[in-house]
## 1
Amino acid sequence: MNVVVDLNRCQGYAQCAFLAPEVFMLHGEESLLYHPVVPDGQLERVRRAAAACPVQAILVGEEAGAGAR
Amino acid sequence: MRDEPCDGRIVIVGASLAGLRAAEQLRKEGFSGSLTLIGDEPQPPYDRPPLSKQVLLGMVSAGQTGLPQRGDLDAQWRLGVRAVGVDPIEKRVLLADGAEVPFDRLLIATGTRARPWPNPAEAALDGVFTLRTSDEARRLAERLDAGPRRVLVIGAGFTGSEIASACRERGLAVTVAERGPAPLVGALGGTLGALAAKLQRAHGVDLRCGVTVTALEGNGRLTGAQFSDGTRIDADVAVVALGAVRNTEWLAESGLAAGPRGVTCDAGCRAFNMYGIVTDDVFAAGDVARFPHPLFEYQLLSLEHWGNAVAQAEVAAHNMVNPGPRRIPHLSVPAFWSSQFGLNIKSVGVPTFSDQVVIAQGSLKDARLVAVYGYRGRVTAAVSVNQAKSLEYYERLIETAAPFPPAPGAADRIESPAPVPSDVPDPKMLSHGPTVALTGHLPDRRLTVVHPAH
């Protein structure tokens, strides 16, 4: 599974960084960095982070066009 | 066709963010016909913002920024093949491998590519890079891993500044050469440009403004560069960050209003033809599109913004499967972000569409602030530095054309309540393109009417 964050919406609440720290991390005071490919075993945490995001900026889904490779 | 907008053949040329989001939206709106995505890169759609951040920092490899997809697209993907033309009469997209793909409606979402170094022999030196695609990011990250002695970044727009930031974070020596008076000045004007210059130097960047690179030196491999002020440096990596070129050449024979500034379309994403007549079956979205925006005096805007690609693609897709009266305009307020030198910079509106700027919250000294931009007495943009939560408020001021300077808010103290000139430079004077190109007149220039002598 892959994840993308709409950083226009993101306001640095950092809920995701608390819920799934291996995938989402703050860089400096309020810049969010994330791993676009969700590691094995982190999917449930990432789903919870996406649900908890106050501005609903996190999209989780199958990698686009994966079957087209 | 008109009676059955949810059927037929839709072809999307450009399999990146805008193309993907348009495809998703088409299915979401009930399009049940055949859907084809054509992309010149072999990979499926991937996200670009991480390329100059996570990937250069070594957190993520370049092949790992694939975009997630909402739901099943049931699409045919033709990846790794370039579209080379459109036959507007027979309604076919022509591909470089000789194939032809027929369509009933076409979406053009071919985006931009990195502007190459103008001297091809110098551009071919080993060690000279651009950064726009996943492949380019992979090669640059590998070279940074190898520990070059010095990296030269040519152009201090957002991409160049992010590259310089990532290099400094890795402990690499960096020289930045910028033709304008400061980094980011083309997008944000003079006040924040001066802040960016101070920050870069505080982080150990050898920043040189007001100079151009006159030659890249080397014999097979890059060894150094010469500057217009007569100085030179040794460098084994150079990254050319001189803005982007819109991918419109393939449309030269299409009869569409397509050129170096993009594909001109209306607010509903319908492309104009070369006579200024709107088409009804060809649409454009994302970095390649150029459209009139009422908040900015209907000047044609080209936006190289992630959020614009998403929003415009969704509007285009909606309008491709809905009859005229149900069509919607793409009027969202432009917005983008950047992360560099430990700071989160976010922007709403169009900062270059301004004549004055005021620090409305925070201070330059603390590098935590909101700068508000105005044009002839109304708010047209706001940029936050480590103060993102405030931006939504200013977005509403922009949408409602609120008076500039804005009334003091309840937030923190104001360093300097007096507006100063926004010092938005003429884009012709910059070595990199601003991320928003206003392709009408420059708003800080007054027109002079010249009466001919009798």
Note: Chain B touches chain A through 40 residues (CB under 8 Å).
## 2
Amino acid sequence: MNIPSELKYAASHEWLKDDGTVGISDFAQDQLGDVVYVELPEVGREVKAGETVAVVESVKTASDIYSPASGTIVAVNEALGSAPEQVNGEPYGDGWLFKLDVTEEGGDLMDAAAYEAANG
Amino acid sequence: MTNLDETGALRRTPLHAAHLKAGARMVPFGGWDMPVQYAGVKAEHAAVRQSAGMFDVSHMGEFRVTGPDAEAFLQYVTTNDLSKLRPGRAQYNWLPGEAGGLVDDIYIYRVSADEFFMVVNASNIAKDWAHLTRQAARYGAVLTDESDQWGLIAVQGPKAADLLQLHADTDLIARKKNSFFSAHLFGLPVWLARTGYTGEDGFEVFVAAEQAEEMWNQLLSVGLIPAGLGARDTLRLEAGFPLYGHEFSDSIHPLSSTYTWVVKDKQHLGREHIDLAPSQKLIGLALDKVPVREGYPVQLDGQVVGHITSGSLSPTLGYPVAMALVNVQSADAEAYGVEVRGKLHEARRVALPFYKKADV
């Protein structure tokens, strides 16, 4: 399981980068299986940590994505509209979901070691 | 995201260890710990459509019905005509409920004049057994629950027959659809049925539970791709096959589905309910992008007229498809709205099945 050390992780499997980029972990994409559709939030929307902001659909199921921080959505990964499988292929790269202008991180974010311990 | 992991005290098929060895992701399914996928749903789905795959369906139940009244008993508790079923043949059939709906949809295989074999859905084994034994009291028919004695592996795909033929002691290629016969496969005694639930050609392999893992490993060694519940569901959805618990239930009129041919002109248990016209009809829907799931409301002209019963992206077609039960009077529209997380998405009505293999 790939868990980059520079990211922070929510218990609900979203990752947050220093620049506000959000995606789902390698563990989460593996558990979901083939991702076929991603519903992204609107740019400009203000969100709170823990709020449902996106939906990732695999062949079998729809899964809510919660924001790991409070802030404003400043960008979404439009490329996932035609290539949702990037969430599987590059969960920490081209498979990112949205970018936040973070005002406050969620209180329960873990570092890589803690996330690995929780999901090992 | 949440709910990634669910475990509990679940039943295991004789192939449980083989699934773990093959790297399967296991999920609870109808009280069983079953593989939902190995390499991935899309790859497994494609393997079955293009070459051949295999599924563990050992969780399904097997009952044997014997005795001089076996046919009369089964004629009474099913809707299809068993008098037309010759030894060595299989028939799709329904168990109608006393108060309407279906107790289950089943396959019946005729072994001889007074011996039948029956496969029932895994989640309905206990219910079917109680129902059938209650009804059998008036007949000279003996029921045996052999569910724990059998492993069942469905080998499905256009290359299934050729692959199995190399390792069988009888001519498989010449067998017609719905044939049911004993044979040896890889030297192991089996019953084979040329049936399946994917819309492809194939065989279902009944093997003694204690030999199921050996059979699975032999099938793996000749290149059959293991496929899980995920692919099984997308394959059956594309093929327009209704599934118990989704398109069928104790409370859904069975003639809502497109499978009206399963009811023949004969007297049977619950006939008075089946003779009432259904108030709903099962339709096929196709969408541009958003997958729609069971339970999502279906709208027409601003009114909710039904709901999705099964839905997913169709791996073969590349767009989402769904089956929906809608009010009969609303079943002929060309387009509907499906409510997905509070937003309405257009769905066009398309004929079932969504996918049909070219040579049938």
Note: The radius of gyration of chain A is 13 Å.
